[in-house]
């Protein structure tokens, strides 16, 4: 009997892409949602200890450890297990730091153009149930690390890497960035102005993952970004953005400096990614021709 379901009507290439999207979302968001459950059930500091152990095991498994052994080559491929050179590390760290600065500069400029919806940004991120201020800061750090690791493994690893082998690289980056954006639209803070910033973040992280051939720079950049997002913009433990839009107060020196910071940080991020792509090309030119086996998710 011939299958007539929706999946059977997809071409082999489209089937791999569809599977990569489903698997990437499942592996990334499934792991990312462990931390909120632990935090609410166990409280601090026990939740952070358990989460750190979980993340260590998760990374070990995602890069090819543990069962099923038949999937180990696919997991290694999806994790992008490249050992970075000293130059690779330098440019990757620069890209990661500049990326985080770019996103925060973009959010700041956005809310100098339109009013900052503080209540919408704070919704769902109330850490007041953690009474100790020090434990609140630890929870912010663990939240950022958890999201940075899990989402990068899911979106830039298990989703984007298989798609790169089926479609042109820009298309693979676009798809992972688009899915990354769509799955954040459920948040109250995902206003119309924030959507292009989230999409831009997804594109930059996707380009960084491809250019560096490693998820580590993306994890670092994502974590640095989320430390600021959790600590300042969302939980508002580190303060609340209070600057007024320029249509109320006019263009001031702060706005000019914030706009300049956005341009500079974005330029540095893109320059670092371009440099990493050049290093990637140099590595590829030194590699012997390889006959690749089947490592797709088909």
Can you walk me through this structure?
It is a single chain. The protein has 298 residues and is an all-alpha fold. It has one domain. The chain has twelve helices and no strands. It has helices at residues 12-32, 34-42, 46-62, 72-79, 86-113, 118-122, 133-164, 169-182, 194-212, 216-234, 246-249, 253-286. Helix 4 crosses helix 7 (133-164), helix 7 (133-164) packs across helix 9 and helix 9 runs parallel beside helix 12 (253-286). It is globular and about 60 Å long.
Short description:
By secondary structure, this protein is mostly helical. It is built from twelve helices and no strands. It has one domain (10-286).
What portion of the residues fall into strands of 2 or more residues? under 5%
User: Helix and strand string, N-terminal first?
Assistant: HHHHHHHHHHHH
- The average pLDDT score comes to 93
Largest sheet: none
Distance between the termini: 21 Å
Total number of distinct structural domains = 1
Tell me how many strands there are.
0
What's the gyration radius in Å?
A: 20 Å
Low-confidence stretches: 289-298
What's the helical proportion of residues? over 70%
Q: What general outline do the C-alpha atoms trace?
A: globular
What structural class should be given to the helix and strand makeup? mainly alpha
Number of helices: 12
């Amino acid at each position: 009997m011939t299958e007539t379901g929706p999946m059977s009507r997809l071409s082999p290439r489209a089937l791999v892409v569809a599977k990569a999207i489903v698997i990437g979302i499942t592996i990334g968001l499934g792991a990312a949602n462990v931390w909120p459950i632990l935090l609410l059930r166990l409280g601090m500091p026990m939740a952070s200890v358990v989460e750190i152990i979980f993340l260590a095991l998760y990374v070990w498994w995602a890069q090819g450890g543990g069962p099923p052994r038949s999937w180990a080559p696919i997991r290694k491929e999806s994790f992008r297990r490249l050992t970075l050179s000293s130059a690779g590390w330098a440019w990757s760290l620069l890209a990661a730091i500049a990326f985080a600065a770019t996103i925060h500069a973009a959010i700041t400029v956005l809310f100098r153009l339109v009013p900052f919806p503080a209540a919408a940004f704070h919704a769902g991120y109330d850490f007041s149930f953690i009474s100790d201020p020090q434990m609140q800061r630890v929870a912010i750090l663990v939240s950022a690390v958890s999201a940075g690791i899990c989402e990068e493994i899911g979106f830039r690893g298990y989703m984007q890497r298989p798609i790169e082998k089926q479609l042109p690289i820009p298309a693979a980056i676009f798809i992972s960035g688009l899915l990354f954006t769509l799955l954040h639209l459920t948040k109250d803070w995902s206003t119309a102005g924030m959507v292009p910033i989230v999409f831009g973040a997804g594109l930059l992280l996707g380009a960084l993952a491809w250019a560096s051939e490693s998820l580590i720079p993306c994890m670092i950049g994502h974590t640095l970004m989320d430390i600021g997002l959790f600590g300042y913009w969302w939980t508002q433990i580190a303060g609340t953005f209070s600057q007024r839009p320029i249509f109320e107060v006019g263009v001031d020196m702060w706005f000019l400096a914030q706009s300049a910071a956005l341009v500079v940080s974005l330029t540095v991020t893109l320059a670092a990614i371009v440099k990493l792509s050049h290093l990637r090309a140099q590595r590829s030119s030194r590699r012997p021709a390889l006959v690749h086996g089947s490592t797709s998710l088909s």
